[in-house]
Amino acid sequence: MNASTQPGSPSTQRIAPADIAHAASILAAGGLVAVPSETVYGLAADAGRSDALQRIFQAKGRPSDNPLIVHIAGVDQLNACCREVPPLGWKLFEAFAPGPLTIVLPKGPSIAGEVTAGLDTVAVRIPAHPTFHAILEATGLPLAAPSANRSGRPSATTWQAVIEDLDGRIDAVVCDAPCPLGLESTVVDVTRSPPLILRTGMITLEQLQRIEPTVRAWQGRDVDAGSMASPGLRHRHYQPKAPVIWLDHLTAPQRAAERIGFIGQTTSSLPQAALVCACASLEDYARRLYDFFRRCDDSQISLIVCERVAASGLGAALADRIRRASGDT
Ligand code: TXA
Ligand code: MG
Fold it and tell me: What is the DSSP string of 268-289?
């Protein structure tokens, strides 16, 4: 790691996706590298090094009580992370790994305390993105990686968005294509009975229930189970500079006075919008949401208006992110 890459220094390296060995060497030396995943960019560091993990929190401005997801190349690395894998954990890895599902398991002794923020569980994901996978293989290390954005901001789905938030605060970014899915992984806790979705994401409740019918999604009202289990849910999240509202909450004075950015599948509903993101499907809406939020920031948009989506299937995760971006936690 380069000593001049402490927060505040203007020297984040741009690495080509083909240069896996270089990214891996920075990580092996305790550095921070933003890597593409199929969901969003992750800010990776060796999950066993407290110094590197502390720098993740510092670079993001992340509250230290919000635990990190540990990423591994395959199930053979699970024993480096957790004490045991309950039978449902195995079934879910078999069905959805590699891919956008994060599974909360009993924490093993070698996981650094900074990763779990004092919880006795650890969240583990096997990413499907070929570049991330190759970096995991090349380091041979479990890599802790939160989303590669400043805390509270929309997640970064492009390397340019990573630079926007973290230039000079991290050692390197891998300059790959935009993340193909665009919303974060689903986080499911299999240490509880019944198993609980702590964060909705790209793998839907319906998909999980096909494997285990008792899986349920955390509801805001279910405070005991949810807020204790996933500290990240308590914090401000995904917010662009302009306020975010649903289209069906837009008032006539707002229509007249605001410089509006509109995202949705029915773009004819708001012809006066200054910036429009026309989405071809729900998947397209999910893929483009965070990038659109950031483009609104660049275009002096004063109000971001989102077309409502039904909160089922992938719509559940999309509605959750838009609701949180609107400041309703
Ligand atoms: O798609 C994703 O999940 C991306 C990519 C990079 O993998 N990562 C990501 O990380 O979104 P982050 O840190 O932005 O969100 C992780 C979420 C937080 O809500 C955190 O509280 C929760 O996972 N989490 C992590 N460890 C946990 C644990 N042991 N128990 C409960 N929740 C946990
Ligand atoms: Mg995040």
Answer: GG-TT-SEEEE-SSHHHHHHHH
Ligand 1 atom with the smallest distance to the CA of 148 is 6
CA 16/CA 146 separation, integer angstroms: 21
pTM of the model: 0.94
pLDDT tens string 179-234 = 999 999 999 999 999 999 999 999 999 999 999 999 999 876 544 444 455 666 66
Q: Please state, in angstroms and rounded to a whole number, the distance separating the CA atoms of residues 289 and 117.
A: 29
**Chain Cα centroid distance, residue 261:** 23
Q: Where does 189-281 have alpha helices with state H?
A: 205-211, 223-229, 252-257
Counted residue by residue, the chain has a size of 329
Which residue among 69, 176, 198, 289 has the greatest number of ligand 1 atoms within 8 angstroms of its CB, and so is best to mutate? Answer: 69
Closest CA to 24 of 99, 128, 134, 111: 134
SS (H, E, C) 58-108: HHHCCCCCCCCEEECCCHHHHHHCECCCCHHHHHHHHHHCCCCEEEEEEEC
pLDDT in tens, 252-277: 999 999 999 999 999 887 888 999 99
Compute CA distances 123 → 102, 103, 108, 194, 318, whole Å.
6, 5, 11, 17, 21
- Tell me how far apart the alpha carbons of residues 149 and 161 are, in angstroms, rounded to a whole number: 8
d(CA 260, CA 126): 39
- Ligand 1 atom having least distance to the Cα of 125: 7
